[in-house]
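The freezer alarm interrupted the setup, so I double-checked each line after restarting. Inputs confirmed:
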Amino acid sequence: MNTTIALTLDLKGLSCPLPIVKTSKAMKDLRSGEVLEALATDPGSVPDFDAWCRATGNELVESSREDGVFRFVIRKR
Amino acid sequence: MPAEVVILGGGVGGTLTANLLSKELGRDGHVTVVDPTGMHVYQPGFLYLALGQAHGRWLARDERTLLRKDVDLAVEAAERVDPEQGIVHLARGGSLPYDHLVIATGARLVPEEIPGLPEGSYDFYSMEGAHRLREALRTFDGGRILVGIAGIPYKCPPAPVEFVFMLEEQLRHRGIRDRTEVTLLSPLNRAFTIESASKIVQPIMERRGIGLSTFFNVESVDPGAHAVTSLEGEKAEYDLLVLVPPHRGQRFLEDSGLTDAGGWLPVDRATLQLQGHDNVFGIGDATNLPISKSGSTAHFEAPVVASRIVSMIRGTAPKANYGGRVMCFLETGHHRATALRFDYEHPPTPPRPSVLWHSAKWMFNRLYWHTVPQGRIPERTREVRREHEEES
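Predicted 3D structure, all chains:
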């Protein structure tokens, strides 16, 4: 499946719940199947993104960490 | 020549900074507070006002009466800040030059950013809003009440949770609880952003039969259909809707080019200096710091800013830093409350809700006017109190 990133959100430095709120807003403008990448530094965002994807039915393609930055790749349902 | 310090905003942060500076500087400095209304409002009281537990009169005082005599008060709106020249331009004409500037202008409510919100929703985030909600609740006779947050960041994060608890209690007293559904709409998968507080709050909500709708980020309100829609695509119907309106920083700061996209001042998290301008400080709700927008934050920041300005004027090395300290009460209804104390490095570990914390909040509400603006709650007593609690 295509994982070309349609949009990258820089959420670094933001604290809970802003990363989720901003992602929610951005997802609204994507088409079904399009992929969003979110970069965050708040450790709380890991469980939050996981739970948010399960609740909304969007697919969490990737959840990883590099140099203190959490990367979430989400495909819109 | 005394150094000129101009302070924009006569709320907690502005007033306390002004009083601390004037006391410390004496003849070395001259302090002017600029506030468009000249009234100091105790905003935590809006919650009680909306629920009919306080009078509006109790919540506002003439700012002049809270300032030391040698602090000047200009009841004026600022129109523009020119940090290159060191001048504040006032809306009615005229200007104030400064050597040091403190911006403590708080947040403004922008309900119009959510379609349908101004017509369809009530709030307790302004004096007028709290009065309107109080009237609506007086005539409310059962149905579905939704309480939520329509924008982030917003002031006093525990307030919506406190509101549902206190509302639930009120409905019980009025004998209409059994025909009223109360639901909290949360932007996350829990009732409160801070996880440790959520763990205390959610079981109480369950026991009291208060509903929780998770991942509900408000997108729009349809006042005709009595429905609110979320960004996640859900729709919820209501008979009475209470939403915290979106917040932004003050427009004149945006117009002056000093803010980020949300209208907040980008300040250093420790020194509170505005990025790129060492003689300009931001305090309280006006900043972009990732901590609670609350009077308590401003209360703990004010001594840091005052101390740094005194050092700059005296030519000594500034030592005071802000560590992100915040202290909030959280009312859980039925005369109980808990407390959230935290900083940048330490998340809160709230105690079990008790009558003690509820009494402490009431005591604070009553003593506020005689202690906080004047700086009569010294840091030490709080530290001592905390140590004492940990021992017992």
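Quick read of the result. Helices of chain A lie at 18-28, 45-56.
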